[in-house]
């Protein structure tokens, strides 16, 4: 029996995360795959050049991907 992958990445944004690829609770959803988290993050906002979205490694707090004009802090 294999162990399920450990969720390591979280998508963060001040803007609503929407899209047909995401379930309604995706804002709090964690991802084990970095590439999947980044792809879903970009697809989840209307305009990634104007709306900030980022992917954070929850183990160490490192921002592994970020787009948009304003910081989330």
Written overview of the protein:
It is a single chain. By secondary structure, this protein is an alpha+beta fold. It has one domain (9-67). 14% of the residues lie in helices and 22% in strands. The chain has one helix at residues 34-43, and strands at residues 9-12, 30-31, 53-57, 63-67. A hairpin with a 5-residue loop joins β3 and β4 (63-67). The radius of gyration is 12 Å and the shape is globular.
Which structural traits does this protein have?
14% helix; 1 helix; 73 residues; alpha+beta; single chain; four-stranded antiparallel sheet
List the helices and strands and how they pair.
Blueprint: E1 9-12, E2 30-31, H1 34-43, E3 53-57, E4 63-67
Antiparallel strand pairs: 1-2, 1-3, 3-4
């Amino acid at each position: 029996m294999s162990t399920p992958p450990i969720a390591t990445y979280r998508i963060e944004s001040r803007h609503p995360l929407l899209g047909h690829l995401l379930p309604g609770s995706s804002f709090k959803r964690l991802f084990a795959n970095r590439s999947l988290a980044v792809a879903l993050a970009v697809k989840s906002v209307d305009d990634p050049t104007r709306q900030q979205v980022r992917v954070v490694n929850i183990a160490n707090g490192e921002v592994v991907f970020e787009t948009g004009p304003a910081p989330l802090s």
